[in-house]
Specification:
mainly alpha, disordered C terminus, elongated, about 0% strand
Length: about 375
């Protein structure tokens, strides 16, 4: 039972498990955004108010259930698991303190520790990152899903800066000259946008070329297959049907390039063995079939260096942080999230297009969970 529960919490496969993960993710994001609202508009949820109690009770209830489930499957020998449990427990304490204060169990003089404890809520960002690998299984594949972590982390950084400023009784954002930063935002954004535009054009051209070469290679194989059948040279070793199926899997990255290359070389060797006594087939074999297959498979392996994507992401994160300090309020949050979606989303699309074939990633979520 414990193994099944652990698998469902880590890798949900059932509808109930996915719905639970969906609820957990929404509560994590909502609690972090709620903390930001509390800091920006303290009068909206004052200490001891009913609206604050309702929100904190919901957060406390959901995270307490998850904490209990995690404890039931935790192994005392697994240091990493224990560390995660401690982080989850610390993230619950601020909500528990607020509930205890409302019930009169805690005195107002004891709330001085709350400003420090509120920082532990940001551990929920770490929790989200731990379950982020199942985001596409729960929400479906989309650009929004793939950059979900980036949005949440930057929201957490923003809340951390505000909370730290409240703890130190100093506005950290006052250290920055926002007028100067707006110039930097424009400059970095322009450079980053130009780099993305150029890159987008390059990978799109590559994608078109791969599509053309794939069709050309398959046409060459089809033509050679007809010749072999007409001449009665087909044998059990020449399994072109299975090879075509594996090519489709290779394009969807279900088969690695070395495996596909080895299978193709073996197929070509069998075809060569079958036509060795047919000199009239030498030219179409070498100059048409082999060359087109080689050009197609070679082109699929021409990609940008991983360091290039690392550079793009670092520039993007620098740009997002510049926006954070240049526009620290609620408007800045909305702008930052939109900018992350646009720019980091383009990085995701470019990375996807740089593969052998464009995967089915959409702009907005088409599904959440089956009914």
């Amino acid at each position: 039972m414990s193994i099944s529960l652990q698998q469902e919490l880590d890798e949900p496969h059932t509808t109930l498990g996915k719905r639970y993960t969906l609820l957990l993710i929404c509560i994590i994001i909502g609690s972090i955004f709620f903390l930001f609202i509390q800091d920006e508009y303290p009068s909206a949820f004052p200490m001891g108010s009913m609206q604050l109690l309702i929100v904190e009770l919901i957060i406390l209830f959901i995270f307490s259930i998850d904490f209990a489930l995690r404890i039931s499957i935790a192994s005392l020998k697994d240091i990493k698991s224990i560390a995660h449990l401690i982080a989850d427990g610390l993230a619950i304490i601020p909500s528990l303190i607020i509930v205890l204060y409302y019930l009169g169990i805690m005195d107002s003089s004891e709330l001085n520790v709350l400003s420090l404890m509120r920082l532990f809520r940001l551990l929920r960002v770490v929790k989200l990152l731990r379950v982020s690998h199942v985001l596409t299984d729960v929400f479906g594949a989309s650009v929004l899903t793939l950059i979900f972590d980036t949005m949440t982390v930057h929201l957490g950084i923003r809340v951390f800066a505000i909370e730290l400023g409240n703890l130190l009784h100093f506005d950290i954002f006052s250290l920055f000259d926002t007028t100067t930063l707006m110039i930097a935002v424009t400059a970095v954004g322009s450079v980053f946008g130009i780099a993305l535009a150029i890159t987008f054009g390059i990978v799109k051209r590559k994608q078109i070329e791969i599509t053309e070469q794939h069709r050309s290679a398959m046409d060459a194989m089809n033509a050679f297959e007809r010749d072999l059948e007409n001449l009665g040279l087909m044998n059990d070793n020449i399994d072109i049907v299975t090879w075509r199926h594996h090519v489709d899997q290779f394009l969807n990255e279900e088969i690695s390039y070395p495996e596909m290359k080895q299978e193709t070389n073996e197929l070509v060797a069998h075809i060569r063995h079958a036509i060795i006594d047919r000199p009239s087939l030498d030219v179409p074999f070498h100059n048409n079939l082999v060359q087109r297959l080689s050009a197609f498979f070679t082109k699929t392996q021409i990609t940008f260096h991983p360091a290039f994507y690392s550079w793009l992401n670092r520039i993007a994160n620098l740009y997002f942080l510049l926006i954070m300090v240049a526009a620290p309020g609620l408007t800045g949050v909305v702008v930052q999230i939109l900018v992350i979606y646009v720019f980091n989303g383009l990085v995701v699309v470019i990375d996807d297009m740089d593969h052998a074939v464009d995967m089915e990633v959409i702009i907005f979520n088409s599904k959440i969970l089956p009914i």
